[in-house]
Design a protein that fits this description.
It is a single chain. This protein starts with 22 loop residues before the first helix and ends with a helix. Helix content is 64%, strand content 0%. The chain has one domain. It is mainly α. Helix 2 crosses helix 4 and helix 3 crosses helix 4. The model has no long low-confidence stretch (mean pLDDT 86).
């Protein structure tokens, strides 16, 4: 997973790391067993710590994962995703949002 995501070799000192965007990276971010495991763990936290309503669960999860509340249009889409596919898939979706993956 680290090689696919261009992580630097820890045994070497490098001034900057390589950057690329490939289809393999996107597939790894969706399907790697580490991402699946962390999605399940995050889903458990959403289920146990978030309020009962779906909208409140979405807000809670976005605060934790993104450091901000979702915009109204995001909230609608994410609430529908949570309703249709459950907490683990919702968590995996959050982990693949640009706001989570890229640092601006």
């Amino acid at each position: 997973m680290l090689t696919t995501l261009d992580c630097a070799d820890p045994s070497m000192s490098v001034p900057e790391r390589d950057e690329s965007t490939t289809a393999l990276q996107a597939l790894t971010q969706w399907n790697h067993r580490f991402v699946e495991a962390m999605s399940r763990r995050f889903a458990e936290r959403i289920e146990t710590e978030a309020p009962e309503s779906l909208e409140e669960k979405v807000t809670f999860a976005c605060r934790l994962a993104l450091g901000r509340e979702p915009m109204p249009e995001e909230r609608d889409i994410l609430t529908e995703q949570l309703r249709e596919h459950g907490e683990p898939n919702f968590a995996r979706l959050l982990f693949n949002l640009n706001a989570f993956v890229y640092v601006d």
